[in-house]
UniProtKB/TrEMBL annotation, chain A:
It is found in: Cell membrane. It comes from the Bacteria. One of its GO terms (molecular function) is transmembrane transporter activity. This is Amino acid ABC transporter permease. The keyword Transcription does not apply. PANTHER family: GLUTAMINE TRANSPORT SYSTEM PERMEASE PROTEIN GLNP, MEMBRANE COMPONENT OF AMINO ACID ABC TRANSPORTER. Belongs to the binding-protein-dependent transport system permease family. HisMQ subfamily. It comes from Paenibacillus bovis. GO terms for biological process: amino acid transport. Its main location: membrane. NCBIfam families: HEQRo_perm_3TM (TIGR01726).
From TrEMBL, chain B:
This is Glutamine ABC transporter substrate-binding protein. It comes from Paenibacillus bovis. Residues 1-23 are annotated as: Disordered. One of its GO terms (cellular component) is membrane. The keyword Signal applies. The keyword Signal applies.
Amino acid sequence: MQEFRFDIILYYLPMLLQGTLLTIGISILSIILGSVLGLIVGFGRMSAHAYFRLPAACYINFFRGTPLLVQILIVHFGVVPALVGHTDVMIAAVLSMTLNSAAYTAEIFRAGIQSVEKGQTEASLSLGMTHRQTMRYIILPQAIKRMVPAFGNEFIVLIKDSSLLTVIAAKELMYYANVMRGQYMRIWEPYLTAAIIYLILTYSLSKLLNWWERRMN
Amino acid sequence: MWAATCSGPCSSASSESSTPAAASGPVRFATDASYAPMEFMDLDQVKGFDIDFIAAVAKEAGLEHEITNVGWDTMLESVRQGTEYQAGISSVSITDERKDSYDFSLPYFESTNIIMVKQGSPVKSALDLKDKKVAVQNGTTADILMSGIMGANNPGLSKFESNALALMELDSGGADAVVADIAVVREYIKNNPDKNLVSIADSQNFDSEYYGIIYPKGSELKAKLDPAIQKIIDNGTYAKIYKTWFGEEPDLTHLKAAMAKG
């Protein structure tokens, strides 16, 4: 391995950090929008009515069963031009990540809610609570606590997978690592630096989640 | 993977050579076959101008060779190491920066960047692109040129992983122009006559550039292949291959001048 050039890392650091901010921004926006959509899809999946349940199941199967890279390309070159008439990298970035994460969070919600024993529902109903009260005061508080680790996991996966957005030239962290590689035709400096930044992001996020989880217990 | 038929003194070539590359069989070339018509995949076969060219060069030099599509990054790194692949051919433009990392063959192809826009675009030259949305392939000379003209971090400049993606971005209305090598742009316009695309040459802002084969630093292959490159350009084999891929005779004036400079 030839000499490791810290000077080109320093030279690119402002752009890498700018890309990191976009990575964080896209990830946060997508996890929030994805959770809202995931909540809807998740309840649809648990619905007693087949006309809610089947579309929700199809949605989850499609987005969990196809590669995110393919979804990004379909959204960027297909869905977004169909919606707004031209490609728009930011809409495509947030939309594809949101649609993808919604499928996973839907399953997290479902698993969380279904993990609460049936006896809990039966007990609270027999105490005279309504279904709505049972969900609000008995089931959800227990379910959410169980969802936190899986939810945190999904956020970490989302941050890492946002690197795939480089394929549509979304100017996130991986994009600038590729640009840096393109300029200097060197492998180690851009990709190792990007790897370390991703690691810092995901590691501090998992520490934060651990702390939050402990506090909730 | 594709191996050329070997004619002439293949075996004797390896005995008189001290490089492990030649002693252990065919010379292995790496390429990034995503640059039609220069190099591209046709099902599982690598084809294109560069591929036919290197076959003729290897034949002339009496060397066996094979070409593998490994992608751009892998090509760069593995050719630099020189163990798995002893050379790379993939429309690599010869630049001073790249000479720090690789040895280049004689220049074998003259190219220039060209602008592609939709019909009716007000763009007349590269300078008109300063405040437009421009798509290029990351790391190419088009990228270097447009980064210079627009500013490297201009938000209007998008660097895609391949020319194909950059061209799709123009096609879907996400970019006002694509800047890329003339051969790639011409091929795309030729294959998409219904898209009303036009190309704009700009010899003021875009210099000619020359492609070379890349070798690891200090490779002995250069000394073996350079005379063969010279030979097939002089004897007309090169022009024949050029005509197959581009439908016209090459104008070799600039290329020969560049070759004379080395």
